[in-house]
Amino acid sequence: MPAPLGRVVEMLSTLPGVGPKTAMRLGLNLLSRPASETVALADALKLLHEQVGFCDICGCFAEKGLCQQCDDPAREGDTVCIVEQPVDVLMMERGHNYRGHYHVLHGRLSPVDGVGPEELNLAALDRRVEAGIKELILATSATVDGEATAHYIARRYRDAGVRISRIARGVPEGGELEYLDEHTLSRALDQRISWDNGSI
Amino acid sequence: MPAPLGRVVEMLSTLPGVGPKTAMRLGLNLLSRPASETVALADALKLLHEQVGFCDICGCFAEKGLCQQCDDPAREGDTVCIVEQPVDVLMMERGHNYRGHYHVLHGRLSPVDGVGPEELNLAALDRRVEAGIKELILATSATVDGEATAHYIARRYRDAGVRISRIARGVPEGGELEYLDEHTLSRALDQRISWDNGSI
């Protein structure tokens, strides 16, 4: 294999879900398509880190100092949804029903990996809470570590005079009971809500 | 999503086997790893088309004028294995038992897609056959189009005083009869070879 192709294949194989065979197929595809397309991809990759950074306020992806959400005066600044990663903000925004701000932790508590509160983006959250926030929505993941992180944050701000909530857990949309795990089903039963005609 | 990330994701999703979701995962990974790694991939991609071209003789990948095989005086120049794509040469070379040269067609006959003999790298092969070759090994794929291409080339050079052969077809290594299609099995039976103790 020519060395320049080998280098591309080797680097592509470090991407998540891309093994040596897939990397080879991608490398050959990039070599066989018009040179201009491959150069365009290279240019876009070069600009990625140059142009995309993190929001000064919430830690989400931002092209300038502030992200789209923090820069939007129409959004409710006194409601802050706490997520683990910048990508989680993109997922939340797909729903179109949240109009508040975000705060990205850039991780979750994980004693095994040596991630404690100091490793998370919490000092900035302290300042936001002090400056005045009505509600903190805990939207960390529904994993053991995500749950521990939610508990930690709820305790950290319990006397800060802020309402704290956790996103609901239960049967996902389209979920069939037959294929759900027992923990999800058991929690969905525990946290059942009254059938109020018209509201659900 | 920040526009620079959107551009990378859009371009990645044009790669084979990469859908919008995978492209998103790859794009986010490239954004979250150290900038130097993403820039290194961009640099390697820029050099790909600049440094890798096709061999002047056989049409395989080559960094300079000639590919590794055509540039190797130890290989048998009077045996030429005909393949469809440059990647097929890489696959053949994995076997380590072929010591001849190659000729890459850069395609195969496909009337449906408007690919006729003029679209294939055959004029160069004519010149190689005229200059003197002992054997042409047809290693086009075992598909309808690959088979048609092999037939066409065999007819094209039938009076050129060159031995023409086709790579064997049959049960692949490790193949269990239970899972083989009937065409492969039927051909393996038709083309059975005598059990000569010691030779097989």
Automatic annotation (TrEMBL), chains A, B:
The gene is recR. Gene3D superfamilies: 3.40.1360.10, 6.10.250.240, RecR Domain 1. This is Recombination protein RecR. One of its GO terms (molecular function) is DNA binding. HAMAP family: RecR. One of its GO terms (biological process) is DNA recombination. A zinc finger (C4-type) spans 55-70. May play a role in DNA repair. It seems to be involved in an RecBC-independent recombinational process of DNA repair. It may act with RecF and RecO. CDD domains: TOPRIM_recR (cd01025). SUPFAM superfamilies: Recombination protein RecR. The keyword Ligase does not apply. Residues 78-172 form the Toprim domain. The keyword DNA damage applies. Belongs to the RecR family. It comes from the Bacteria.
